Amino acid sequence: MPKARIIKIVSNQYTLLNENKAEFTAVAMGKLRLKKSPVVGDFVRYEQHEGNVGIEEVLPRKNSLVRPLIANVDQALVVMSALKPEFSSVLVDRLCILIRAAGIEPVLIVTKLDLIVTDDPLYRTLREYRDGGMRVVEVGRDRPIDDLLSVLEGKISVLTGQSGVGKSSLVNRLDLKFDLETQEISKALGRGKHTTRHVQLHEAGGGWIADTPGFSSMDFTQLDPDLMENYINEFIPFLGKCRFRNCRHENEPDCAIKQAVVDNKIPQTRYDNYLAIYKMAKEAKETQYQ
Ligand SMILES: Nc1nc2c(ncn2[C@@H]2O[C@H](COP(=O)(O)OP(=O)(O)OP(=O)(O)O)[C@@H](O)[C@H]2O)c(=O)[nH]1
Ligand SMILES: [Mg+2]
Ligand SMILES: [Zn+2]
Q1: CATH of the domain at 91
Q2: Which of 172, 194, 226, 268 is the most buried (most CB within 10 A)?
Q3: d(CA 15, CA 32)
Q4: Ligand 2 centroid, distance to 52 Cα (angstroms)
Q5: Is residue 114 located within the same domain as residue 200?
């Protein structure tokens, strides 16, 4: 049976790309026989039926994300605007934790840098992320996109981030052939509206990039608060060095993480964000099981 990759799903219609680079639509055959429902990025086996193509099997996934719903990506691009909406390091950290927990490498893409001054404190924040080992790409109107292109090269990337940060605008800038719908300026200033409505992989920059719908609220139910510490780069060298083995790095004595913050080895913001995200994840877990 031939193999193809799902590059787009709109309601029950799947767009497939096969090994000969042919693009065509398909339906999920005998839905009940498919053990898992297909998502964008999945490799599937398909069969030609009278008049249409049917997906018969979803092949094992290398990795997957729930929000955005996608499988088999090499990296996730966490998109955050400098302004409109305002940069939130808590949101960046929370997304990076979820992405690393899924076994995927996050890359931070900061958009709309044309809206802030060159000595804005945000640049210090970005330096902190770089010092922590994160790849950070700066973009904005009138800025070259070479750095973004080098991140995309040869990889399958998924865009993730709030509504209105400029994910679709980024894809449009990669190649003139793209004309994805983006938020109008008037709407962007008002309350959030989701412009992109489905996940779709686009070929660009020598790789593939998935545009996705943004989100407006945070979902923590997927996150085990006690595993979080493993997904914060800056924490890694100090894990296992606290007095208590189950130290959550809150108020416990002889905590190696808290000491590292005092010694300026872990940025204060990273630690504060950890505490905030830990609390939210714990509360989400508790309400889920009530
Ligand atoms: N000044 C400035 N505006 C930008 C930049 N990138 C995007 N925008 C504007 O930001 C608004 C939102 O951009 P979109 O690309 O629609 O955002 P999105 O992340 O795709 O939003 P959803 O599809 O709702 O998730 C639009 O009005 C864009 O013109 C940028 O680098 N600089
Ligand atoms: Mg969009
Ligand atoms: Zn500790």
Answers
A1: 3.40.50.300
A2: 172
A3: 20
A4: 30
A5: yes
Residue owning the nearest CA to atom 4 of ligand 1: 112
206 and 235 together in one domain: no
Mean per-residue pLDDT of the chain: 92
pLDDT per residue as tens digits for the range 69-109? 999 999 999 999 999 999 999 999 999 999 999 999 999 99
Q: For the full predicted model, state whether its pTM sits above 0.70.
A: yes
Ligand 1, atom 1, residue with closest C-alpha: 112
Burial classification of residue 94, based on how many CB atoms lie within 10 Å of its CB (0-12 exposed, 13-18 middle, 19 or more buried): buried
- Tell me how far the alpha carbon of residue 85 lies from the centroid of ligand 1, in angstroms: 10
- Same domain for 82 and 207, yes or no, is yes
Residue nearest to atom 5 of ligand 1 (CA): 112
**Residue 91 CA neighbour count, 13 Å, CB half:** 20
Which residues constitute the domain of residue 123?
75-211
Lowest mean pLDDT among 25-34, 38-47, 59-68, 201-210: 25-34
211, 239, 270: which is the final residue of a domain? Answer: 211
Closest CA to 184 of 175, 176, 193: 193
Write the pLDDT tens digit of every residue in 25-36. 999 877 656 778
The alpha carbon dihedral of 46, 47, 52, 54 has a sign of: negative
- In short, whether 81's Cβ falls inside 6 Å of ligand 1 is no
**Rounded distance from Cα 253 to ligand 3 centre (Å):** 8
Q: Which atom of ligand 1 has the smallest separation from the CA of 192?
A: 24
Beta-bridged to residue 8, according to DSSP, are 15, 200
Mutate to test the pocket of ligand 1, among 182, 185, 186 (most ligand atoms within 8 A of CB): 182
